[in-house]
Structure formats: structure tokens, C-alpha cells
Specification:
heterodimer; A: mainly alpha; 9 helices; 2 strands; B: 197 residues; mainly alpha
Chain lengths: 204, 197
Amino acid sequence: MKNSKTTVLIKNNIWINNPVFVQILGICSTLAVTNNFKNTLIMAVSVTFVTAFSNFTVSMLKSFIPNKVRMIVQTLIISFYVIIVDIVLKAYMPDISKALGPYVGLVITNCIIMGRAEAFAQANAPIISFVDGFLSGIGYMIVLLPIALIRELLSFGTFYGYSILPENYISMTIMITAPSAFFMIAVYIWIAKSISFNKKGDKK
Amino acid sequence: MTPNINVVILLFASIFTGNIVLSYFLGLCSFISISKDLKSSNGLGLAVTFVLTISVAICYVILKYILKPFDLEYLRFIVFIIVIAAVVQILEMLIERMSSALYISLGIFLPLITVNCAILGVVLFMEIRKYDFLQTLFFSIGSGIGWWIAILALAAIRRKIENAPVPAGLKDAGITLIIIGLMAMAFMGFSGMLSVQ
């Protein structure tokens, strides 16, 4: 019984209701760092951590939180975990913390986290909420990591800081700048939607 | 350690060359979802500019006179988000009392703004770039206006594109993101004009 619920959650979060390309939520804070694979990986891991734990906490406390102030309480729970992430990054990875700049703090306003807390954790048990938060973080990751990979490869000729393209590769300036991120995510959504349309067509 | 930037230049730079949504990706969620309708976009743009200016100024004062002297900077995320939520709430009550016409046009957008990352983003940028009070004020007004202009332009373009034959997979979100990308490229053209980090 519980097993099947988990599989449903996996399917929902990663493909059918993927937060990014179906709901277009939460791209604000992470899209900005997608010109570097390492930074994106760290941001995505932070988002996953915060979503999972804030879902867990919200679900634990849901019967104690008055309905009227639940939004602000949820925001405070989320900011609590973001502060933990910020402090850990500052202590163990000061370079990355500097490169990410304000975007770590902006995880608080990432709509996915708030959305999962409101839509799922409010109505479900702690453990399954934790799993749900974790999985939507993964769903988020599988959209952003490929984008970061392509952007870093084309703009600097590197992957995770190691150069892999030949020396005489001329880097594409557009890939470093903001517009390319918008184009890449649009193309990604296009591909994902076309695939799901085709599947629906087959069933008919 | 305040950067030496003229406030007028900072104002224009934050509207055009460093547009908050087109080059820093802030406030994208509501940018995409509200821009379906021109009138709501205008209302939301006005509300964002308003809230942004007031709450960034308050955050500046709190950061400088309370958090820094008492060494409480690690609490800044929580403090900032509470300030933003409080400003939104108070503004909503004030507008409701003072002008019902303004309340009707702005009212429904105000609660949305608490989770708009543009506000928190500007606060955090202000902190990292170490602006002084006047610079902070002009930077936040400029960012608000920049967001407003961008959402109006996007809403106007989306209205035209509604009737265009777009591939099925690219409809709605996809084509909107491509438009935003093109707009961002257009705004990049300004970057030769002024350059402020």
C-alpha cells in the first residue's frame, strides 16, 4: 500500500507534475546560476534539502498552527532551514557561497517549497511529506542540471571546472548571459511537452 | 566601503542595464503567470514598485542599526521576510481605509507580493553591494520600475501572440519564456550605455 503511494509520488513529482516544466514554478532563484554546473548542483541540493525538511516540519506541526497565520509560519520554517544551508555553505565552501551571492537567501521565496508545504504537507503524514519534498527536489534537479551542463560546456568549454573541449574552442558569449537561460528552459519545456502529448495521442 | 556611484546613474542602471527580472531572474513566477492580462500586469507592477521601495528602505534601517551593531546578521533572512510580510499587510490595511479605488486595483495583488523574490532579492543585493541609504532608495525605485516596464511589455506582446500559430508543445509557458529571452537580449543592448556592477 505504502509502496504504491511512493511510486505514485515518484511519477507525479518527476514527470507528470514536474514543478518546473508543468507548473513553471520556482525557477527564479536557480536559473541565475545555471551558467556553472557546480553552483547549480549545490543550489539544487540545497533546494531539495530545504523542501524535504520544511515539508517534514510543516506536516509535524500542522495541527498546532492556526489556519490564519499558517503562511507566515511556513515561511519562517523555510527560512530557518535556508539559514542552516547558508551557514553551512559559508563555513565549508566559502568560494561557492560567495559566487552564489544573494541567490542562497532567495531559496526562501522559491515557490516550489511553499507550494509543496501548502499542497502536500498540510494534509499528509510527516514521513510521506518528507519523501514528497525530496522527490520534488529531484524533479527540479533533473530539469536544471542538463541546462547547466549545456550552458557551461558551450560558454567556457568546461564541465565541473575541468576543460574538456579542445583549446581552440571559441566560447559563445550568449551562453554566459541571461537570455540563453530563458531559451534553454523554453526548449526543454517544448521537448518535455511534445513527448507527453505524443504519449496521450498513443493512448487514444 | 560604500561604492561611489551617482544615484541618478544607479536609477537608470537598475531600470535598463541591470533589469531585475531580465538579467537577474528575480520575480519570475508572478512575471510569467500574471502577464496573461495587461490590466493586472499594470496593477502588479505598481504594487511591486510600491512595496519594494518601502520595504527595502525599512530593511536597510533595521540591518544598519539593529542587526549589525548586535552582531545578529545570521538572522537577516528571517527578519527581512517578516519585514516584507508586515509591510504588505500594513499597506493593504492602509490602502483599504484611504482609497477604495486603489484598493480594488491593487488589493488582490498585495498578498502575492510577499513571496515575490524580486523584493527579497533587492534587499539582499543592497546588503551585498553595500549601498548607502540614498543609493538604496534609488536602486529599489529603479528596480521596481524596471520590473513594471518589463511586465507591461511582456503582457502586450503576449496579447499579440495569442492568435499566432505556435507549436502545441511550445504554447503558453514555452513561448513566453522565449519572448522573455528575446526581451532580455534587447535589454542587453543597453549595457553599453551605462555599466554599474
